[in-house]
Amino acid sequence: MYIGAIESGHDRPTKVVLGTMELFSRMPVPAVLKVLFYRHRFFGTPLSDLFQQVMRGPSFWTVAEREIFATQASKANECPFCASAHHAIAGAYTDINVVKLSLAQGADSPARPEAQAMLEFLAKMVRDPDGLTPGDADKVRHAGVSAEAFEEAVWVGTTFNVINRMLNTVGAQALEPKEARIGARFIKTFGYKVPPPVRFFSRGD
Fold it and tell me: What is the DSSP letter of 192?
């Protein structure tokens, strides 16, 4: 069930930002932004800052790899919105066929061995966390993933466990291809932080 406050409960500065986004994109604002902007000081801004650090901060993993990890986690969590959105974002940083083949995890995967091992681990971590064993971690380490890189990738899976459940709760559906492409361009340009007009002018609490 979609939460009504997420659709119409924003304050005036936030409504102006959302309206401007719709005007320039000529499409409805994605549900994730409406959720993050609602009472943003309580939830959206801290979470968005975390996402910016996890997905765009210094890392062993490339931006494309982290977006592929996010897509993998979203698929495992059966979150259609995030799976479609981050598939497109990953494709904004590398060839879309690289994204598809990496996610398929077949013998012809173009992903480097470290990323292939991490994708397998993240899928199990999301689907069956209680089933993880030391052997699962050992497989990742044997692929050449350092402890620091391991932690960075686990943070991607963990943050998407949060956002996937949030978007599933409000019933966010998969993006249409055009919507996903526009969203990917937006994220590539502006990143994951709450936009300054909302951050500084919305009371959001």
Answer: S
> What span, in angstroms and rounded, lies between the C-alpha atoms of 74 and 196?
27
Residue given tokens 């986690």 in the structure block: 73
**Across 2-16, 145-159, 176-190, least confident range:** 2-16
Task: Kindly give the residue spans of alpha helices, DSSP state H, lying in the chain.
Answer: 4-8, 12-25, 31-37, 44-56, 63-76, 80-91, 96-104, 113-127, 134-142, 147-169, 177-190, 196-201
Residue 143: both structure tokens together: 């692929």
Query: Quick one: 156 exposed, middle or buried, by C-beta within 10 A (0-12, 13-18, 19+)?
Result: buried
| 105 burial via Cβ count (<10 Å: 0-12, 13-18, 19+) | middle
Flag whether the pTM goes above 0.85. yes
What gap in Å lies between CA 194 and CA 205, rounded to an integer?
A: 14
Residue type, 199: R
Amino acid in the structure at residue 196: P
Q: Taking CA 33 as the corner, what is the angle to CA 27 and CA 37, rounded to the nearest 5 degrees?
A: 130
